[in-house]
């Protein structure tokens, strides 16, 4: 469950390392965001030794990939992660990075983020 003020890790190679949630746009449960929801984030820190595609302090849209709070799937199985991660989106809705590091959950397919699933090496 992600809400305004939550710090998240960036799971793509866009150049951002830590971002902070400013607003949850697509709400699934009250004012919290879950896996596959789109949020607005502010970049707090960047990856060093890399030419970054993002700037510190700028606002970007992002899709939530992993949350510490587990999710229950339709078939009854559950899936929880050890960190909160997002991938940053460009203005046209595509990913800023060209590769997603880590896992992408199956719930993204139901929310029409199939392009993000293809950028990842591991799908859960």
In short:
With 124 residues, the protein is mostly beta strands. Helix content is 8%, strand content 39%. It has helices at residues 107-110, 114-119, and strands spanning 7-10, 16-24, 38-46, 59-66, 71-72, 78-79, 85-89, 100-104, 120-123.
Mind explaining what this structure looks like?
- A 5-stranded mixed β-barrel has the order 1-2-3-4-7.
- The chain is mainly β.
- The longest helix is centred in the last third of the chain and has 6 residues, at 114-119.
- The protein has one domain: Ribosomal Protein L14.
- It contains 2 helices and 9 strands.
- It has helices at 107-110, 114-119, and strands at 7-10, 16-24, 38-46, 59-66, 71-72, 78-79, 85-89, 100-104, 120-123.
Count helical runs.
Answer: 2
Assembly annotation: single chain
Mean of all residue-level pLDDT scores: 88
Number of domains: 1
Structural class: mainly beta
């Amino acid at each position: 469950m992600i809400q305004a003020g939550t710090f998240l890790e960036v799971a793509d190679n866009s150049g951002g390392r830590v971002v902070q949630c400013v607003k949850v746009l697509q709400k699934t449960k009250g004012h919290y965001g879950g896996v596959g929801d789109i949020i607005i984030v502010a970049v707090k820190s960047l990856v060093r030794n890399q030419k970054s595609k993002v700037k510190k302090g700028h606002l970007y849209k992002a899709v939530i990939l992993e949350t510490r709070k587990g999710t229950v799937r339709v078939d009854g199985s559950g899936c929880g992660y050890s960190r909160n991660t997002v991938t940053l989106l460009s203005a046209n809705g595509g990913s800023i990075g060209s590769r997603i590091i880590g896992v992408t959950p199956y719930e993204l397919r139901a929310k029409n983020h199939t392009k993000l699933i293809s950028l990842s090496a591991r799908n859960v």
